[in-house]
Specification:
Elements: H1 2-10, E1 20-23, E2 31-34, E3 37-40, H2 48-60, H3 72-94, H4 100-112, H5 132-151, H6 153-166, H7 174-185, H8 190-198, E4 205-211, E5 217-222, E6 230-236, E7 241-246, H9 248-252, E8 257-261, E9 268-273, E10 288-290
Helix pairs in contact: 1-3, 2-3, 3-5, 4-5, 5-6, 6-7
Length: 292
């Protein structure tokens, strides 16, 4: 299943005619990839989802870095982050309702909230002790999910597959990935690459105020340094639902607040920022307002 799904998801056929899978107890990290061979640790007593995850992960490595051959010692996030993203997609397809992507996000945010996160673009061999798992695995996977949510599946998946296809049998550097996506999407995404790959800024959007009156208004405040659009859902007393978005350019222009004016007479019952949790907001306690 995982080979079939990953082939379709990445738009590339499985690159090897044969595969050897070896089980070995005490494997550091649970598994290890080699060209045409995967080494899987002892999963006796663990869940079937754990075994599927590590199997899909190591098989996905046959594409990156075995086919798309990045330099793991310098930029391990290219293969480990991409592979974590791929195996989370495989899990979600095989186990409907799987929280694989949320687990990566939670690991990343758990580190980010401590203020001790290391930059993804720091050379892999020079990561701070104990930080490599976040910078190389969970954060880059989360960032790909974030980019996917930002531009939508219809745009993300073709751009993702074009990067993989164009860099088969080559050695992509980070800027090759950045340029490939920006070109395919037809957007200047320098703000995105700078934010998530070179810095340790966090996203924290909050509902600052909800005003009644002749012109009901919702005020959104950007408390973090990581810019992303603020996607806001507003439930009115008459049962209608309004969807509004504060574009990322508003924050890039230096604003810290944004006002969303509603039709006169609107009675606001509830407001939520990103209720589907598509973006990695570091503090969701300030994302929801409900009328007392």
């Amino acid at each position: 299943h995982s080979i079939d799904f990953l082939s379709r998801f990445m738009g590339l056929p499985y690159p090897w005619p044969h595969m050897t899978a070896v089980e070995g107890g005490g494997i550091r990290g649970g598994g290890m990839e080699y060209p045409m061979m995967t080494l899987i640790g002892d999963y006796v007593g663990r869940s079937d989802t754990s075994l599927y995850s590590v199997t899909a992960h190591e098989l996905a490595h046959m594409w990156v870095p075995m086919l798309i051959a990045n330099d793991e010692k310098r930029h391990g996030w290219i293969d480990e982050g991409t592979t974590s993203f791929n195996d989370a997609n495989a899990q979600r397809e095989f186990y409907p309702g799987s929280r694989a992507s949320q687990s990566d996000r939670d690991r990343y945010l758990g580190r980010a909230r401590t203020g001790s996160e290391g930059e993804m673009m720091r050379r892999t061999e020079y990561h701070y002790p104990g930080h490599g798992g976040v910078a190389s695995y969970s954060k880059p996977a989360t960032v790909l999910w974030t980019l996917r949510a930002l531009v939508g599946d219809d745009r993300f998946l073709p751009a993702y597959r074009k990067f993989l296809a164009d860099w088969r049998f080559k050695h992509p550097q980070p800027w090759d990935l950045f340029n490939s996506f920006s070109t395919s999407l037809g957007e200047d995404l320098d703000w995105f690459w700078r934010t998530w790959y070179f810095e340790t800024w966090t996203l924290d959007q909050a509902i600052d105020d909800v005003r009644d009156g002749d012109t009901p208004t919702v005020v959104i405040r950007d408390l973090g340094l990581a810019p992303l659009p603020a996607r806001v859902v507003i439930w009115l007393a008459d049962g209608s639902i309004l969807v509004r978005e504060v574009p990322v350019d508003h924050w890039l222009d230096g604003h810290r607040t944004a006002e969303i004016a509603l039709p006169s007479g609107s009675a606001i019952d509830r407001v939520a920022i990103d209720p589907d949790e598509q973006f990695p907001d570091a503090d969701r306690s300030n994302n929801v307002w409900t009328r007392p």
